[in-house]
Design brief:
Length: about 220
């Protein structure tokens, strides 16, 4: 069973294990990298406390632990130290099993409110007021998928036509997040251009065909 932490487990025991000569404790002179290494030590400390027996089975010796930490540090390169620690805390809350690297990528990418499902993300993108960049998005991925899909296109086409386009962009962006890429926050703007005149049916059909051809859907 997961979370087999006994009441007497001490935080210091996890810290001693993680600080026993691992490469992640070495100061590099690079403040950003050093901060990420400290965060990774905290991540492994949290996971050891949350999944005591599973953790010890997965990392039975210092050499295995060091290899794992190097792999995790490289794999989570797209996330800030705060996002890494938050991902570990989500793992402990959400699952009884020690997370894999792939699962940690998902947990780090979720953000405070998590990644919404494609349909909910599509509706949020369509309903967000202008200027879009100033909207309080549930996750930056929704904004970037809407922007890639073309706001005007989303606003002037029925869901049956626009959703597949949005969903395709959203899926690709989520996959990039899972691979460790970080998304920039929307740049706040003071004013947005005035809405253009609606396209004719023929122009809409042409634009839809071009987008589908581009996305191969």
């Amino acid at each position: 069973m997961a979370n087999n932490t006994t009441p007497g487990t001490q935080v210091t025991s996890a810290q001693e294990t993680l600080q026993s000569g691992t490469s992640s404790q070495t100061q590099t002179g690079n403040p950003e990298l050093d901060a990420r290494k400290r965060a990774l030590n905290e991540v492994f400390g949290l996971l050891k406390l949350g999944y005591h027996n599973q953790f010890n089975a997965a990392f039975p010796d210092v050499q295995t632990l060091n290899h794992a930490k190097r792999l995790w540090l490289e794999s989570l390169t797209g996330f800030s130290p705060e996002e890494m620690v938050a991902g570990a805390k989500r793992a402990i809350k959400q699952s009884e099993y020690l997370p894999t690297v792939h699962k940690m990528l998902q947990l780090c990418a979720e953000g405070d409110n998590g990644l919404p499902d494609p349909r909910a993300a599509y509706r949020e993108a369509c309903n967000a007021p202008s200027p879009k960049a100033n909207h309080k998005w549930s996750h930056p991925a929704v904004y970037h998928a809407g922007r890639a899909s073309d706001w005007f296109f989303l606003a002037n086409n029925p869901e049956s036509s626009a959703f597949p386009v949005f969903a395709s962009h959203y899926k690709k962006i989520c996959e990039r997040l899972m691979a460790g890429e970080s998304l920039p926050a929307p740049q706040q703007v003071q004013l947005e251009h005035q809405p253009a005149q609606p396209l004719s049916k023929a122009e809409n059909a042409k634009k839809l065909a071009e987008l589908r051809a581009q996305l191969k859907i």
